Hints:
Blueprint: H1 2-10, H2 28-35, H3 44-47, H4 51-66, E1 69-75, E2 78-81, H5 86-92, E3 94-96, E4 99-100, H6 101-114, E5 117-124, E6 131-137, E7 142-148, E8 151-156, E9 159-162, E10 166-170, E11 172-173, E12 179-180, H7 182-205, E13 211-215, H8 222-236, E14 252-256, H9 260-280, H10 295-324, H11 328-332, E15 335-339, H12 349-361, H13 367-373, H14 395-404
Antiparallel strand pairs: 1-2, 1-15, 3-4, 5-6, 5-10, 7-8, 8-9, 11-12, 13-14
Amino acid sequence: MSNITEVLQSLIPGSLSSGSRSAAALSYDSLMAMMGRSKNKVGHSGALTLAAYYNGVNQIANDIAKLPKSVMKKVGKSREPISDHPVQFLINREASNIIDSFTFHFIMTLAAIHRGNGIALRISDPNTGKTLALEFLHPDKLRDIRRIENQLFYYTDLGVFPQADVIHIMGFTDNGYIGKSVIQYAAETLGIAKSAQAFTSSTFENRGVGFGYVTTEKEVKAPQKKIMEDSINNKLMGDTPVRTVMLDEGMEYKSISLNMAEAELIEQNKFSVIEIARFLNISPRKLKDYSINNYASAYQDATDHVNDTITPWIKKWTQEYNRKLFTAQEKAADLYTHFSDSVLLRGDMTTKANYYSKLIFSGVVNRNEVRAWEDLNSGGPDLDEYLTPVNLQTEEQIKNKIEND
């Protein structure tokens, strides 16, 4: 234990040597500087100016934030909600007295995707150990994450915290305790997309004029050439909506149209949507690419979005919460957190009705549970019963029923 104390003392502000800093402490710009920054690569701020990337990150963070969250207890084969548990209030209403639950889960997920690590400090009661609040820590305030004697310690601008006092949602990781930003890997693609975006904007701003040249059968000497070039350039590059150039007799202006490479760069905007979707593990339709646009694909995309994109994040959240928000006694009593993803599949009324009907008539849920999902009042104790289709009974059950009747 003394070794841990000595190391922690070495982590006080100002004592961290640059040579001992982990990958988590390095800013993206510093990392790119060491690797040799490409002019096409972009940083955190630049990435969010790309519509497809901004939209993708925003959607994933919003989807996690809007999921209903609850504290549950395993009782034999049953699962009972514990609505009066303090953790229920924190994860579903207010994470702290300065931030609501929706915003907290949004910014934590955003930080995990965009910066690699979503960090929150767990404020607990020193006597009982119960969690009282969750306070988001901006990624810029995270300096280092160190593994010491099979424990993790978080070095921040606010001090050093053991892992038990930190909620840590990671993005991609290759060591299990330090997350890496998706931008670190997608920088080149995002840079190309940004170049395409800038080039397209410039092309439209210049009304597609681009490059050109003037031809004439008359001899034009050097001084006059310079004057003519400056005059034409000033006119064509002006801010006025109408750009008309008057040429002398015998002169003709010819435009140099976009070459194939430049035309493809404009088309790169569509290509970048696909690449960004792959890095974020999200459907291009979610990034508003409707090149494949039909009802079947839309429904399948919604299902794939839940299974492939959102479920892994739900797993990260619930496992971190289950490890750190409950006391040892509560863990022994089989308390756990649950994020309900059914809300993400409720957009279409017909699909929703079919979904509920199948659950009810298969005996998976009862009618009052469905009413609760829709924020409707209970329909009475009769609706608490689970329906069982007759044709799903065993032959022995049917035979016994006939004999009893």
